[in-house]
Amino acid sequence: MAVSLVNITAEEASKLLSRREGHFFDFKRIAVTPAKLTRTLSGFANSDGGELLLGVAEDKSTNIMVWDGFAREEDANAHIQVFESFFPSSAYFRYQFLKGAGLVGIVLHCEIFKTPDLRPASDGINYIRRGAQNLPQTTNEQITRLKYDKGLSSYEDVLLNVDISEIANSTQIIKFMIEVVPLAEPEKWLAKQQLIVNDKPSVAGAILFSDEPQVYLPKSGIKLYRYRTSGDATRETLDSDPITLEGSAYDMIFEAVRRTAELAESIKIMGVAGLESIVYPREAIHEIVTNAVLHRDYSINDDIHVRVFDNRVEVKSPGGLPGHVTVANVLDERFARNPKMVRIINKFPNAPNKDVGEGLNTAFEAMRE
Fold this sequence. Notes:
Blueprint lengths: L3 E5 L1 H9 L6 E4 L5 H12 L4 E5 L1 E4 L4 E4 L9 H10 L6 E8 L5 E7 L13 E5 L2 E5 L2 H11 L14 H4 L2 H10 L5 H7 L3 E2 L2 E2 L1 H7 L12 E5 L16 E3 L3 H17 L2 E4 L2 E4 L4 H14 L8 E5 L4 E4 L22 H7 L13 H10 L1
Parallel strand pairs: 1-6, 2-3, 12-16
Antiparallel strand pairs: 3-7, 4-5, 6-7, 8-9, 10-11, 12-13, 14-15, 16-17
Helix pairs in contact: 2-3, 8-11, 9-10, 10-12
């Protein structure tokens, strides 16, 4: 892969050197060993991606980062080989040489993107980026968590140690079968959909068809709050006790949307005709809540939190963005953390996810309008 050379001003170089190392940014000396370099590549690739400036050193006497680049482009060949070995398909990274005006040497500026698979370092260990550190993930629990985060496996397939009647004879499944597949037997249909395996219901089966999955999946509900402030959420600004919503995913989605809209519309602001209710498009609320319920990480023991403020509505869904999805590409990329849930809830009458994969775009468009 040819590497371009970009000339930057002294001011631009100074801005780069003034950046602080953190979750998305790192400096490395040209003397960095390949092993240490791949730990940083693994940390960024297994997390949210990031930037790396290769050819910057710290002046120990002043704790200031100084430009200390390669004398020639060819001198970076060994480092470039590390990149191309780590990313053999030339995907999920890009780089360029930077030459700063009045500065000696050239620096390799690298952008590393979040990968859909696990990327171990040269020592065979997977790392994740936390702050300015690359943390090794070595235990079975850490690797399992990383696979959940990457979407390589899904907690929705975990089997629960409860009787299959919890989903095979629930009010929710009976109603669903009558309306959608009236000629099938619930237990056989659920097994065919892999929601019952080895006579045990899966997490996805429970979330979709148990009348009260929160009994054996604690904190898989929704908490709804009203804060009388435009600032931060505090106990002092909480208007009343939080509302707890439980039940199947389908029922929770529609109830949460209704209650959220009611809370938001109870807020009054001074308009042309006097006090007027704040109105958020129900479509936007619906799409965001649906996204939170269907794409949250159910292995995390926490509820979805919906907070209604004087000037905004916040929805916090447990878990990071799955797979290769990032904040930058979230409206363009598609990745289902819980694909069975997404597929099967779309079979429900008045499915909450009518246009699968278009929910956030629909919400953004509704808010723009």
